Amino acid sequence: METILGRMLSRVEGDIDKQEGSLLYTANALGAIELATVYTELDWMLRQAFTDTADREYVIMRAKDRGIIPEPATKAILRVTSVPSEVEIPIGERFTGDAANYKVIEKISLGSYKVECEEPGIVGNKTYGKILPIGYIDKLEEVTISELLIPGEDEESTDSLRERFFNSYKSVAFGGNKDDYIDKVLAIHGVGACRVRRIPVEDVKRESLIPPEGTDAWIGSVVAGENIKNWIKRVYGLLKKNALSIGGSVSVQILDTTFAKASDELIKRVQERLDPLHGEGYGLAPIGHNVFVSTPKEKEITVSGKFTFDTGYSFSALESQIKEVLEKYMLELRKLWSKENAVVRHVQITARLLAIEGIVDIKNTKINGSTDNLDLLEDEIPVLKAVSEA
User: Fold this and answer.
1) Which positions of the chain have pLDDT values less than 50?
2) Cβ pair 56, 136 in contact under 8 A
3) φ and ψ at 34, to 5 degrees?
4) Which of 31, 140, 131 is nearest to 84 (CA)?
5) Could you tell me whether strands 289-294 and 248-256 are parallel, antiparallel, or unpaired per DSSP bridges?
6) Of 114, 119, 118, the residue nearest 91 (C-alpha)
7) Burial 214-225, CB ≥16 within 10 A → b, else e
8) Distance linking the first and last C-alpha atoms of the chain
9) Where are the alpha helices (DSSP H) in 142-245?
10) Which residues lie below 8 Å from residue 224, measured CB to CB, with a gap of 6+?
11) In this predicted structure, what is the pLDDT of residue 208?
12) Residue 271: how many CB atoms within 10 A of its CB?
C-alpha cells in the first residue's frame, strides 16, 4: 500500500501538502489500499492458474480435465481370532478398540473372522490388541486383532494428486501396456506400490513349435489309447497351422499402502481384479495375458557397529531410537522399490545414527555381517531384524 501511495503522490506536482493526515494523502490512501488488495488477489489467481502452485480445490478441478479424481479414504480390513473358537460370532457384530470400531464381515475359519474398520483411513491399520464386543455374545471370552489384511488409506493427498496429474502427460496408459497395468493396479484398494514386468520364456520361439518332417509317421506309429491319440492329433493339427504360440505372461508384484509385504488376501484381490481365469480376459488384463500377482520377499537386515556415546548415554538407553531411525530408513527404501532395486548403504546408516542425540561416533558398521553395501534383488524389500553393539 505504501509503495502504491508513494507512486500516486509523486505524480502530484507543485507545492502541495502530501504529508500523512493531509487532504491529498487521505484521499489517495483509500484508493491505494484497494489497489494493494487487487494486487494480492491477482497474485492468488495467478498461483491458482498453474497446477504446480494451485491449492487443493483447484488442483482437483484441473485434474478432472484429465479424468483424474482424488482417491477417497478407504477402510482397513483385518483378521481377528476369537477364544473360545467354538463360539460363533454373527456377521455384522460390532467391536470396539482403542481408536476405532470394527464390524464382522466374513468368517474365515473356526475362530477366525474378517472385520472391517468402521472409520475410513489409516486409523484402522492397527495390527495387534484386543477388541471388545459392543453387544453381548454368550460365552465369548476374547477377540484379538491378529493380522492386517488390507490397509485403510486416508483421502489422497494434494501432492499425490498433483503428481498423478503431471504423470498423465508423461506416459500413455493404453491397451495393457506397462503404464496401463501400473495405473490399474495402483487404483485397487490396498495397493501402495507395484512392479510390472514380462515373464520371459527362455529358448522358446514361435517357429520352434512347428512340427518337423516325419511327425506324421511318428503319430501313426504311437501305441496309446484312443483318447490320447486324438489329443495328440488335435495339438499336432494346431501346430501345423502355426495356431499355437507363446502367450503373454506378466508378473505383477505389489506392496500394500504401508509399503510392507502384501497379505495373501490382498494378492488374491488383485489377482481376481486383473486376471481371475488366466488369459481369458475376464479381468482388467487384456485377453491372452496370463497375469501372476505376488509380493516381494522380505530381506532381513541386521546392523552392528562400535558406538561411542556422550556422557550419560548408552546403547540400552538409545536402542529404541536407533531402531526407529533404521526402520524409517528401511521404509524409505521400500517406498522407492517400485522404481529401483533397494541398496542398503553404510554411509546412510552412519549419517542417520550420528544425528541421534547422545551418539558421538560409530565405527566398523556392518550390514548383515559385511562392511560392503547390501544390494537387494528386484523381488526383495528390506526389513530391519536387529541392531547390536559390536
Assistant:
1) 203
2) no
3) -65, -40
4) 140
5) parallel
6) 114
7) eeeeeeeeeeee
8) 65
9) 158-170, 178-186, 215-221, 226-240
10) 232
11) 67
12) 18
